[in-house]
Each structure stands twice: as C-alpha cells, then as structure tokens.
Amino acid sequence: MTINKQEFARRRKNLMALMEPDSIAVVPSAKMLTRNRDSEYAFRQDSDFYYLTGFDEPDAVLVLLPGRASGEYVLFCRDRDPAMELWTGYRAGPEGACSEYGADDAFPISDIDDILPGLLEGRQRVYYAMGRHTEFDQQVMQWVNVIRSKVRTGAQPPGEFLDLDHHLHDLRLYKSAAELKVMRRAGEISAEAHSRAMRACRPGVYEYQLEAEILHEFGRNGARFPAYSTIVGAGKNGCILHYVENSCEARDGDLVLIDAGCELHYYAADITRTFPANGRFSAEQRALYEVVLDAQKAAIAAVKPGNHWNQPHDETVRVITEGLVKLGLLSGDVNALISAEAYKPFYMHRAGHWLGMDVHDVGDYKVGGEWRVLEEGMVLTVEPGIYVAPDNSNVDAKWRGIGIRIEDDVAVTKTGCEILTAAVPKEADEIEALMAEARLATH
Q: Record's Gene Ontology CC terms (predicted)?
C-alpha cells in the first residue's frame, strides 16, 4: 500500500515539466530535532522532499536538473558509517540512493559545498522555497555567491530565484490512485480508533485514557504516529478548538469531542466525532448535534467537481444559522444574520481544509482572486461545529458549555465525492447504539 518508485519518478518528471528552461530545483530534507537535552524527536521527513524522493533520512538535499545529459535527479545524503549505524540504524548512502531510490547521481552530503555550486553554474533560474529554512537559505546564497565570485573567469551564476511551492504544491493537491488507496486505509484505521474510544467511554474516564485508546488502535494497525496532536475535550473543553491537554475527567452528562487521525505512510487522516460520556444525548445536546450533522451533510453534498471551494462552507453557515434561530440561540432574519456574521460566536472556523501528506495540506484556496473550483483527486475535510461558550450569558444556561464538531475526510470524484472516513458512526442513534452494545458486552 506504499507509494512505489515509479510514482516518485513520475512526480519528479511532472515537476520538471513545469519548470522553466535552464533551471534547477533544490529541496532540503528535514533535520533531526532535539526534544530535550540529548533526546530527539522521532524523525519525520519534510513532506515536499518525501513527495519527490521517498527518502526518509535527515541531512539530505534533492537537486533536479531538467535536461542534464548525465542525469536529472541528484541526491546528496549521509555516507554509510557502520559505527554510527550500529547506534542509529541503517543508512542508504549514495550507492543506496541510486539503487533503492532511483537517483541518477548521489554524493555524500559532506561534499555538497564542493559539488552543488557546479550544478548551479550555468542554470538561469533556481526553484527554491526561500524563507522556510533560514539556515539553508544562507547556504544556497553562499553557493550562488561562489559562482558570482568567478564571473570574470566566465562563470554564469543564476539570475533569478523562483518559488518552488507554486508548482510543487499544485501537484500535491491532486491525489493519485495510489495516494487515495493509502488515505482510505488511514481513514479506516482512524475510524476504528474513534469507534474504540466510543466503546471505552464511561463517566469517570479521563481524557488521556481515551487518547490512549485512540493511539493504541493507530499503532496496532501500523500507523505509529498521529497526524497531529490528539484532541480529547470533555464537557466545556470541547469548546476549545485545539484543546490538547487531555487531562480532565469526563463526567456524567458531558459530551466528549475527539479530533484525531493517524498518519500512515506519510498520509494523514483527520476525523472528529462528538458523543455523550454516559452513552445518551440530552435533549439539548441532541438538538445542537442534529444541526451540526445536517450542516455537515449539506456541505458534503456540495463537494463535487465544478463547485467552488467555498460552497461547502457556505452550506454549513446557512444550516447552522437556521438551526440556531430555530433553537432560540439567535433571533432575526437568517439572511441578515449571515450577512452580519452573527453565527461566529458559535461557529468561528472554516468548514474544512485540504488534506494529504500534511493534515493542513498544501494547495491554494483561491486562483486569480476567485475561490478554486473543486476537481477530481482533491481531498478535503468537512468539519462544521457549534460551540456554546460556558460563559455565554446571551443564551439560556442549558446550552452553555456544549461543544460539537463532526468531521470527515472527503475525496472529490468524477461525479461527486467519496467519504474516506465513513466507517465511524455519526448518526446520534448509531452512536448511542454502539455505546450501549459496548456496555452490555462488559457486563
């Protein structure tokens, strides 16, 4: 289910086809990061670098040279070092970069200062994501300055820097069949993790215990890491959009909001479900829940080729505003309330974002000043919510402290869309039935 070498080669070919003549692209890998003192975080490759190479080691640099007779794909990487590999694991080395990862040429990263200026020389344009890696920015400029210092001998330094992200991120926006296959599996694993948390929930359980259920399900299915910090918010904590402390007890009568997704083979899932800690929605909880669910269904129905990016969001705004008026949390004409953004104290975020190798994935939302038109292969989240702040004195006390979000991952298809995370229940009756079944099984 992983991406094969042929697909990585196609990606490089597609990017080079978009580059100007006599140009070069330079892409650095991620670095190891220190967690504390001499302990490091688990390494995670830079998404752009991995998208083009499949190479998951630090201290590497990708160079693409369209039209280079001796090979267009050059990779700088760490040399083999048996003594270090005994401690920190296998390295591909330059030889492995060619044999295992398809590089035309590969060199030790220690030699990059000697070799890369020669690759830059004679190329008119450099595609590079300037400003993202400050230290590497300085290295790139030093290499260019090496060439500039030799112009009297006939050296030709690049004359222009172009933003690599524009072309590369547009390619990443459209998922291939192989990418969608991985994302479906990530969605399945994440969906089962959410169902597991629902089954495990009881009044008195702690948020971190539900987080542990989620992470265990990820790990036992080969997804060793979450795609982002898991959110488990019980009661009023569900009104905090990016609550990650996960340290409180879920009490009888609380709703529990879980926003969690695994990363599988460098692709993210992103699901949110909200459910009652005791297995039964109160009347107020169910009323607001049904509004959010209706909003999500309306938004998903708007995910299809030809519709623009903002249409799903517009659907959620209308349905949520209508629902808040019907329940008495807002009053007035729906159109006027939407124009005045009166819904924003309850629904303050967008209805979704692109999804892929990064949970908030790359790709422009507007093109030429207009909302982007949805096309086959794009993947986005759909995640409306209602959050009634515990200190909101403008509403009846019975509504306060209720936070609800429902989120699924949706791929645009030729004729509509496919929900990649549909396996986890979201109908209120289905959630209650799942939780009741789990309780019976433990008695």
A: cytosol
Instruction: Give CA–CA dist 113/422, Å, rounded.
Output: 50
Active site residues: 38, 242, 259, 270, 349, 353, 360, 383, 387, 405, 407
Q: In DSSP terms, which residues pair with 228 in a beta bridge?
A: none
**Domain spans in the chain, listed from the N-terminal domain onward:** 5-172, 174-442
Cβ atoms of 405 and 426 within 8 Å: the answer is no
Q: Any idea which architecture 5-172 has in CATH?
A: 3-Layer(aba) Sandwich (3.40)
Q: pLDDT tens for residues 139-197?
A: 999 999 999 999 999 999 999 999 999 999 999 999 999 999 999 999 999 999 999 99
317-357: per-residue pLDDT in tens?
999 999 999 999 999 999 999 999 999 999 999 999 999 99
- Paired residues of 108 in beta bridges: 77
